[in-house]
Write a structure and sequence with these properties.
Helices cover 44% and strands 15% of the residues. By secondary structure, it is α/β, with parallel strands linked by helices.
């Protein structure tokens, strides 16, 4: 299958850890030019070095807080200055803290909303300003199967991710006339395999707030495919949706969750 991503300009937010890291490395294999926007620029630089070794045409890391529009604008300026344009945006930044809703606070709600939703709005607005004049582009946003099924201890996060699903469908309808495709990938439980796959700002650094090994085992056994997700599972779907192989696919929400949800 010809993906036609060689030397394409790709922006990946949150590319330093877990799923984002796998997305960067998978685009690298395809020979893309990659701009990684991440708060943890030291961790992102480690990923950039790996990406160069895997065949990326070039990689640059821009320290970026996606909730800050000025920083987002600077990231896209760096991408266009270095690579001429942006062909693909992957809205990957995400964060959560597992708690029952009655245990949460308005401050936590705002943090989840800002990181997961407002950051995605900022990046999408900036990239559309680049893509619309050239009548082409692909946007892939990372959501979660919590948005489709509802998950205990993820009430606000799941609701925000559901908002992403709806938003991206609207953006797909509004901008298809410009040749811009917009899709969503919903991972299930996706676990880093090694400690060097995550940085200090990753929510996976606080393992006690997620699952015990026994709980991971029970989750895996409950899935039709009987295993937990890995970053490359989501990355492969993202890269396909960003590629010319998916040139007639837009406005879709794809679960990559081992069969946790089956919505059709």
């Amino acid at each position: 299958m010809y993906l036609n991503l060689k030397r394409k300009s790709v922006v990946v937010t949150g590319g330093g850890s877990n799923i984002g890291r796998a997305i960067v490395l998978t685009f690298a294999v395809e020979g893309a030019h990659i701009t990684v926007g991440d708060l943890d620029d030291r961790q992102a630089e480690k990923v950039a070095e790996l990406a160069r070794k895997k065949g990326a045409a070039s990689v640059q890391v821009i320290k970026t807080d996606v909730t800050d529009m000025d920083q987002v604008k600077a990231m896209f300026k760096a991408a266009t200055d270095k690579h001429g344009t942006v062909d693909v945006l992957v809205n990957n930044v995400g964060w959560d803290q597992f708690m029952f809703f009655t245990q949460t606070t308005p401050d936590l709600w705002q943090k989840i909303i800002q990181i997961n939703y407002v950051g995605m709005l900022n990046c999408t607005k900036c990239v559309l300003d680049i893509m619309i004049p050239k009548n082409t582009g692909a946007i892939v946003s990372i959501s979660s199967d919590a948005s489709r099924a509802g998950e205990p201890r993820e009430a606000v996060y799941g609701g925000v991710k559901a908002a992403i699903n709806s938003f991206m469908k609207t953006i797909a309808k509004e901008n298809g006339r410009y040749g811009i495709r917009c899709n969503v990938v919903c991972p299930g439980v996706t676990v880093p395999q090694e400690t060097d796959e995550i940085g200090g700002t990753s929510m996976w650094t606080k393992k006690d707030s997620f699952f015990t090994p026994e709980q991971f085992e029970r989750v895996a056994k409950a899935l039709p495919l009987r295993r937990l997700g890995r970053g490359e599972d989501t990355a492969n779907a993202v890269v396909f949706l960003a590629s010319s192989a998916a040139s007639y696919v837009t406005g879709q929400v794809l679960s990559v969750s081992g069969g946790y949800t089956m919505i059709g």
